[in-house]
Design goal:
Arc Repressor Mutant, subunit A, 21% strand, Umud Fragment, subunit A, 4-stranded antiparallel sheet, single chain, 8-stranded antiparallel sheet, alpha+beta
């Protein structure tokens, strides 16, 4: 019966058979064989799988490898190590040689690239010298489309707004002179559209009308820009339609925004504000000022009279919310103090006419304003229709635009002597 002995290698117990075996072979574990051969344990297992090393399994399943004693001797191991080192040195030298060759090749490539770049620069310089005389041929100066559009917008916008404003006033008044002025301004607007649009189109055509051979010599980026210009030109509307479209936009801005929310012209049909405003006067009314502030004493306002069926009336503010208003002998007393009213020149007190000599006293409710006409003897104001709610106020009249001899701002002192 064979005997089983215990061999301890690197702190591990390995069961190795005591069976006699060939003395020329050395029996060892995988770790010992790796150290003896100077390779890794995985390399030893690979050799075992390939059948290059004799081996067996110990009773505990551990792999046992057999090596020749000559292979495991110190002298053989040193010789093998020396050969391995020499092989590494040879490999390092080979890699150095390959690296030097790569460096030489890169240096040569850089020299070739530099020569090519120099040649390309020379060719570009020669092409520029060839094309330069053609570029120096006299051409009419081109106009920057952006500048043309800006100038066109400013001129036509101002002309359109002015023409529309005067046209509205002329229609309301039926004046031939105003109608002619409105027609002249409208004609000026159309001429401005045509002139600046022609300049814009002329400048764009000059940019796009360069010779084909010159375009063929330009760079790829310039050709792309020229292609984009041609595409944009194809998308442009005809001149007539473009003109109508811009006129329509200007009219929409004037009648859709300016008139409803900013400024509107009003016609004076009655003598209630004489002498400040005469019959037939036209005034501009600021329609947004009272969105940010409240009416003040002395302001001339336009409001919709509920008592008159929603008709627009124009009067002067006399009393503010909370004020006590009283009329004695035709003079206005505000909170017990007599008011100085230099804009009232007509006789304010007419005997036999109600509410012209005496009225009140009344207290102006919150959110309301007491208004009166400057022609106190002929004005249907708060003495007859009551205080005016703020929500019915259209705006403040600030400028007389007709007749020409009386054009000016409506700035009159308030009852207390200040504006």
């Amino acid at each position: 019966m064979a005997r089983i002995g215990t061999v301890v290698v690197n702190g591990e117990s390995n069961l190795v058979s005591d069976e006699p075996h060939n003395s020329s072979r050395v029996r060892m574990t995988v770790a010992e064989a790796a150290r003896a051969l100077g390779i890794s344990e995985s390399a030893v297992r690979k050799r075992v799988k390939r059948g290059k090393l004799e081996h067996e399994r110990a009773p505990n399943g551990r792999l046992i490898v057999y090596l020749n004693s000559a292979t495991t001797s110190d002298e053989s191991h040193d010789a093998k190590t020396e050969r391995y080192v020499r092989g590494l040195e040879d490999r390092v030298e080979q890699l150095r040689n390959e690296l030097d060759q790569e460096r030489d090749a890169n240096r040569e490539n850089k020299l070739i690239i530099a020569a090519l770049e120099e040649r390309i620069a020379e060719l570009e310089a020669s092409q520029t010298a060839t094309v330069e005389p053609e570029r120096r041929e006299p051409h009419p100066p081109t106009i920057d489309p952006n500048d043309a559009v800006l100038v066109q917008f400013i001129i036509t916008a101002v002309a359109s707004i002015a023409a529309a404003t005067v046209f509205v006033v002329s229609v309301l008044s039926g004046e031939v002179v105003l109608a002619g002025l409105a027609g002249g301004l409208t004609l000026f607007s159309i001429v401005g559209f045509l002139t600046h649009w022609w300049l814009f189109r002329f400048g764009a055509d000059r940019i796009q009308g360069r010779p084909s051979e010159l375009r063929s010599e330009t760079s790829a980026s310039r050709q792309a820009e020229s292609h984009q210009d041609r595409q944009a030109a194809k998308k442009k509307l005809p001149l007539f339609l473009d003109l109508l479209l811009q006129l329509f936009i200007c009219l929409v801005l004037v009648f859709g925004f300016v008139k409803p929310f900013v400024v509107e012209a009003f016609y004076i049909p009655s003598p209630s504000m004489v002498p400040t405003l005469e019959i037939g006067d036209r005034v501009l009314v600021n329609k947004f000022i009272y969105r940010f502030s409240d009416p003040q004493r002395g302001d001339i306002i336009v409001f919709r009279s509920v008592a008159e069926g929603g008709v627009d009336l124009i009067k002067r503010v006399v009393g503010l919310p909370g004020d006590k208003v009283e009329l004695l002998h035709g003079q206005v007393y505000l909170n017990g103090q007599r008011q100085n009213e230099p804009y009232v020149v007509n006789k304010p007190c007419v005997s036999g006419m109600p509410k012209t000599c005496s009225y009140g006293p009344v207290t102006v409710p919150k959110g309301h304003y007491f208004v009166m006409g400057d022609n106190r003897a002929n004005s249907a104001d708060s003495r007859f229709i009551g205080p005016v709610p703020k929500k019915t106020i259209v705006g403040e009249a600030f400028l007389r635009i007709w007749p020409p001899g009386r054009v000016g701002l409506l700035e009159e002192p308030s009852p207390n002597g200040s504006r």
